[in-house]
């Protein structure tokens, strides 16, 4: 281990004041490195180190005045495998997350199926006069040879009456008698045929 001492910076220099240390304990130094600033009566001088090693102790504090040859610092053995100072790497700012805005969704309403109008219900025709006949009148119409569906009743709501059937039978018989020839009338009488019940084809 070596010592770093106050050097003689002139023939008439007896003392020097340590103005500033340029190293600190633990720093590696090499022969020829500037390690301190010393003020003499004539000037301020940067002082270099004459040893190679590691600064073990700073003996003299800044601002003190010491004679030439006084020990200013102790220099120890170099530290093997000393790691190089780590340089701080600036960390890039993390960009703010980008929030994706969803595209607007256009909803097209489904076409409404047209409902076909309900077909009009067929009106039920009122029952014919024949359906309004009582069993007695229906039998009478059959006996008189009258078709009740061709008649218009004079009763309530167009109901056929006995009078309607008898008038229709009389009118039918009169019409047929008017059209029967004398020969046909004689033949009908001989055969016992009621001409009122016979419909002519001539």
Note the run of SSEs as H and E.
EEEEEEEEHHH
Largest sheet: 4 strands, antiparallel
Which of globular, elongated, flat, extended, rod-shaped describes the shape?
rod-shaped
**Order of strands, widest sheet:** 1-8-6-3
Total number of domains: 2
Mean pLDDT: 75
What is the name of the CATH architecture of the largest domain? Answer: Beta Barrel
Strand content: 15-25%
Would you count the extended β strands for me? 8
Low-pLDDT residue intervals, each spanning 5 or more residues = 83-87, 127-131
Q: Write down the CATH topology of the largest domain.
A: OB fold (Dihydrolipoamide Acetyltransferase, E2P)
- The secondary structure category is alpha+beta
CA(first)-CA(last) distance: 168 Å
Helical region count? 3
Helix residue percentage: 10-25%
Domain Lipoyl-binding: 1-76
Organism: Intrasporangium oryzae NRRL B-24470
Protein name: Dehydrogenase
GO cellular component, one term: pyruvate dehydrogenase complex
Question: Which labels suit this protein?
Answer:
OB fold (Dihydrolipoamide Acetyltransferase, E2P); rod-shaped; single chain; alpha+beta; 19% helix; 2 domains; 202 residues
